[in-house]
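Ticket reopened. Same input as before:
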Amino acid sequence: MPPGPESQRHPAQLDPHRPHLPRRPLWVCRVCPDMDWPCPPARLLLAVEYRRNLAGLAVYLGQQLAVAMEDLGRLDTGSPPNGNALYERFITWIERKREVPVGRPRGVDQGRVDPEPPEL
Ligand SMILES: [Zn+2]
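Engineering reply: fixed in the latest deploy. New output:
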C-alpha cells in the first residue's frame, strides 16, 4: 500500500471520520452531543497538535472566536452573543494549559545546589 496523503494525517484526529469540529452556526461539537465547541476532546486534540506552538493555538482559536461571534450574532436568539463567555470558552483554557510543562526540560541546571558557605 503506497503512502498517500493519509501519511500526513492530522495527529489530533484519532478517528478521522469523526473529527471534533464545530457545527456552524451553532458552534456545537459535531461528535459530542449537546457540547459546545471546543469540547474537551477537541481541546485535548488541539493541545496535542499545538503542543510546541501555544501562540499559534491562541491565534487559531482567536480566529475561530471571531467567526463564532459573527455566526452567533446572526442567529435570532433575541440577545447578542456573550463575548466574555465565548472568550472563556475559546481562549481561557489555553492559559491553563500553559501552566503545564509541555516537555521535559533539557537538563538545564537540574538539581544544581550551590555549596553552603563554610561555617566560621
Ligand atoms: Zn467533541
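The first helix runs from residue 40 to 49. The pocket of zinc ion is lined by residues 20, 29, 31-32, 35, 39, 41-42 (CB under 6 Å). Please confirm and we'll close it.
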